[in-house]
Amino acid sequence: MKAILLAGGTGSRLRPLTIHTPKPIVPIFNRPFLHYQIDLIKKVPEIDEIILSLNYQPQRIEEILGDGSALGVTMRYVVEPAPLGTAGAVKYASGNLAESVVVFNGDVLTQIDLAAVIRLHRQREARATIVLTPVENPSAYGLVETDPEGNVRRFVEKPGADRITTNHINAGIYVLEPDSFDRIPSDVPWSIERSYFPSLVERGDTFVAYTYDGYWIDIGTPEKYTQVHRDIMDGRYATAPFLNLPAPRISVAPDARIEDGATVEGPCFIDEGVLIKSGARIGPYSVIGRQTQVDEDASIEGAIVWPNCRVGREASVHNAIMGQHCHLGRNVRVADGTVLGDRTTLTDYTHT
Questions:
Q1: How many C-beta neighbours within 10 Å does residue 186 have?
Q2: Of the candidates 327, 329, 288, 320, which has an alpha carbon nearest to the alpha carbon of residue 305?
Q3: What is the DSSP letter of 245?
Q4: CA-wise closest residue to 282 among 300, 259, 267
Q5: How far apart are CA 57 and CA 14, in angstroms?
Q6: How many other C-beta atoms are found inside a 10 Å radius of the C-beta of residue 93?
Q7: CA-to-CA distance for 90 and 164, rounded, in angstroms?
Q8: How far apart are CA 351 and CA 108, in angstroms?
Q9: Is the pTM higher than 0.90?
Q10: d(C-alpha 154, C-alpha 209), whole Å
Q11: What is the DSSP letter of 12?
């Protein structure tokens, strides 16, 4: 059995962070995002190969992930000649496969029991199985209606309040049979959500839903990207480095240096090679990337700082995101909601 990871998106909602770092490899703490999806796939031993469908900056993703051997998986890359949409990408990546394939959108973090989804697919002898998840605000999403037996019946795009019949949305995880890909045209952008799936319903194919109400998030916006880190620090998503870490849940790399007089409050994460100078304060929900220096009397709280940054003396960064190799001068103020791209320099006394 194969898994296809749709990792070709440009990550436009996360810009400027994704100008040099494709969304599938943006760091969650000190690991590329795709590592977390690969961890989930590895729990299903019968999946013997992972196929990465790429389009945007494929060489950057290959540089980070390699051939998969370091992760304990067999991996290969398929680069779209042009953006083909979600369904087109699946067909192009699947090639001549005859076996079932598991498909993941490249921006979904979850702890679903993937083996259980595959079991349902086989028990129902389905042509396709889609994972659904409930949301609090259904009007903000496209909804998926099912009948009492769990068969998919209709897709409803961002309905008004008077058209909401369910709170279940597409979770971006599927099990598909390649013999159904004949309805996807070759070399043409084609949507899995708006074209391929509706065709299954129209033809009366066995198309079933697996409903999952556990942890699920799309990391594709700065707000959601920040939320993922906080959820992990709070234990809502169980993974290293915060797995079984006792309160106040402070994770500090062994070679990080925290000088006397500095204050560190949990939960927070301080990566390898970091220097926190005397008088500096690292507040709750902060993430400090490797080889970053935080100078005297600086304050960081609720912020995500990517590797190789410097936060100058008396500067403050609160509830913001900084790309890698950023340099903040003395007494700089970075306000809530700010996102700084790689290599941003803010000179002394700048306020955002």
A1: 11
A2: 288
A3: P
A4: 300
A5: 15
A6: 25
A7: 30
A8: 34
A9: yes
A10: 12
A11: G
Report the distance separating Cα 173 and Cα 86, nearest Å.
12
Q: Which two tokens stand for residue 221?
A: 């916006």
> 113: burial class by Cβ within 10 Å (0-12, 13-18, 19+)?
middle
Encoding tokens for residue 61? 């993703």
Task: Tell me how far apart the alpha carbons of residues 53 and 114 are, in angstroms, rounded to a whole number.
Answer: 20
On whether the CB atoms of residues 280 and 18 are closer than 8 A, the answer is no
Tell me 151's DSSP state.
B
Which residues have a Cβ under 8 Å from the Cβ of 100 and sit 6 or more positions away?
Answer: 1, 118, 121, 175, 176, 177, 178
Output 248-257 pairs: Cβ under 8 A, ≥24 positions apart.
251/29, 253/290
What number of other Cβ atoms are within 10 A of residue 95's Cβ?
10
Say which amino acid occupies 328: L
pLDDT per residue of the chain (352 residues) written in tens, 0 to 9: 999 999 888 888 999 999 999 999 999 999 999 999 999 999 999 999 999 999 889 889 998 888 888 888 999 999 988 888 999 999 999 888 889 999 999 889 999 999 999 999 999 999 999 999 998 877 777 788 899 999 999 888 776 666 777 889 889 999 999 988 988 988 888 999 889 999 999 999 999 999 999 999 999 899 999 999 999 999 999 898 898 899 999 999 999 999 999 999 999 999 999 999 999 999 999 999 999 999 999 999 999 999 999 999 999 999 999 999 999 999 999 999 999 999 999 999 999 9
Say if CB 123 and CB 34 are below 8 A apart.
no
SS3 category, 33:
helix
* Short-list 67, 78, 211, CA closest to 151: 211
User: Does residue 334 contact residue 328 with C-beta atoms inside 8 Å?
Assistant: yes
Whether 277 and 262 have beta carbons less than 8 Å apart is answered as yes
Structure tokens, 329 = 């001068």
Terminal C-alpha separation, the chain = 50
Question: How many other β-carbons are positioned within 10 Å of the β-carbon of residue 54?
Answer: 25
